Amino acid sequence: MAESVSATIIVVGAGPAGIAAATRAAEAGANVVVLDEAPSPGGQIWKHRRSAQAPRAAQKWIARFTKSGARLIRGAQVIAAGEAGRELRAELSDSPGKMLDLRCEKLILATGARERFLPFPGWTLPNVIGVGAAQALIKAGVSFRGRRVAVAGSGPLLLPAAAALAAGGAQVALVAEQAPGEAVARFAAGLVFQPAKIAQAVLYRGRFFNANYRTGLWVASARGDDRVREAVFTDGRRARTVACDVLCCGYGLVPNLELPMLLGCAIEKGFVAVDERQQTSVPTVSAAGELTGIGGVDRALVEGEIAGLSAAGKSEVAGRLRARRARLELFAARLAKSFALREELKSLARPDTIVCRCEDVVLSRLDPSWQRRQAKLYSRAGMGPCQGKVCGPALEFLFGWESDSVRVPLRPTPLSGWALPGPEDGASPNERADSR
Amino acid sequence: MKTVQIFVDGRPIEAEEGATVAAAMWNAGCVRFRTSVTGEPRGPLCAMGICFECRVTIDGTAHRRACMETCAPGMKVQTGG
């Protein structure tokens, strides 16, 4: 029923970290297979429809990756894993329920990050989307020409997203960063030591200087009928209503921890803990990129290179990259500090505001004294198709609820795909399936 | 620019070759992709395969994420499920 593939090293994720890891490992002579759910390599940041549209760094890396001998399996989403990462099962997107079983000696996780969403009244209205989502839609072929768009939330993605929207013909009504102006200014000043990044920042500002970039301002609510029509912004004292056809709101990025958690990799402060070779607490499994800290493309690339070289037995070459990694680590730390989320965001949701969008669970149905598991059992929050990937990080921010244990399948899968490779705890796959 | 034609709830839509179903639907003015368990209209949120808010029925298969599917000629998309 399921096809099978073997490789010395399997890399999950073909974003910058995964591409760098696979390229370096394959160039060192290892037999490498890369799995990615998208139809083309690059991950979210390097997503493109035609190779000419990819950023230059992406084109360079993707060309090198293509020549390296690593094999990319597109449209493959890992739904189960066992044997300390040496066995994987992936669903192939071209035909739902079609499975691929994989075996390897070493696994490199580069599953990247997703946007963090926080609930506020009106956030479930159509045309309220993420900030990264706006960029993803543009890359997927959406035209924002003539649309009036407000951009809000937090983090360095707001500016490039607003610039991309403006370049695509949108009228960017407002860009609202929740972090205070002083924190953002300190962050920007620190970029002087990162020439490529300051150049980017200037470019972004230049492209949409007509738009209002405001700090210390956040979305209190969105209103509309069948879609968003206006958003109310506040600085904690005054409210201001902005008419918009589209509201983009995202609060930075959170790592996609499901697969490392399923494999039992130690998590520290919300990220996968790794040693200097990018190895996790499970010796056969490494992790690179946003999984180990939110730090952008350059950090993901260098971590991927270290992971790939180390997995292929070239630790001494990897050692030369450590100084660069340490420098980029400082950037990641400054990023986290500068764009820390303010307390006021915890009180935006009203009792009747939906928190879990899959199951339409409103805030008043959740008891802050619960744990995440109780919330699932008593209210169904986190039980829907996204399996808590959206409400989980929100609930962690609102109530401090840490994520619950991860179970297979990692995403909704047709029953026809069941009969898993044996999980480590000795339970048969069917028992596992039944116990859900 | 090459285009492909897909059908959304029976209505023909021209999409740029390589565009996702979500992108084609967005450009055609579709707002309600699915209906939530309490009857609310929902459309794409994350646009990267995480949130499942954009799920539609494609060629008879339910719960396909419009943001993860590339338009193919003649594809039949049903919303509102």
Structural description of this entry:
Chain A is of the alpha/beta class. Chain A has three domains: 3-113 and 254-336, FAD/NAD(P)-binding domain; 117-251, FAD/NAD(P)-binding domain; 349-399, no CATH class. Helix content of chain A is 31%, strand content 23%. Chain A has 13 helices and 23 strands. In chain A, the strands form seven sheets. A five-stranded parallel β-sheet of chain A has the order 4-3-2-8-21, covered by helices on one side. Chain A has a five-stranded parallel β-sheet with strand order 10-17-11-12-13, covered by helices on one side. In chain A, a hairpin with a 3-residue loop joins strand 14 and strand 15 (228-234). In chain A, helix 1 (16-27) runs parallel beside helix 2 (56-68), helix 3 (131-139) runs parallel beside helix 4 and helix 5 runs antiparallel to helix 10 (322-338). Chain B has 81 residues and is mainly beta. Chain B has one domain: Ubiquitin-like (UB roll) (Roll), CATH 3.10.20.440. Chain B has one helix at residues 21-27, and strands spanning 3-8, 11-16, 34-35, 41-42, 55-58, 61-65, 76-78. Chain B has a five-stranded mixed β-sheet, with helices on one face. Chain B has a two-stranded antiparallel sheet with strand order 3-4. The interface between A and B is large, with 39 and 38 residues.
Identify the overall geometry of chain B.
globular
CATH architecture of the largest domain in chain A: 3-Layer(bba) Sandwich
Return the domain count of chain A: 3
Structural class of chain A: alpha/beta
Global structural class of chain B: mainly beta
What's the arrangement of strands in the largest beta sheet of chain B? 2-1-7-5-6
Provide the spatial order of strands within the biggest beta sheet of chain A. 4-3-2-8-21
CATH topology of chain B: Ubiquitin-like (UB roll)
Estimate nothing, just give the exact number of structural domains of chain B: 1
Write the CATH architecture name of chain B: Roll
Amino- and carboxy-terminal Cα gap of chain A? 24 Å
CATH superfamily of chain B: 2Fe-2S iron-sulphur cluster binding domain, sarcosine oxidase, alpha subunit, N-terminal domain
Shape of chain A: globular
Treating each run of at least 4 consecutive H or I residues as one helix, how many helices of chain B?
Answer: 1
Beta fraction of chain A: 15-25%
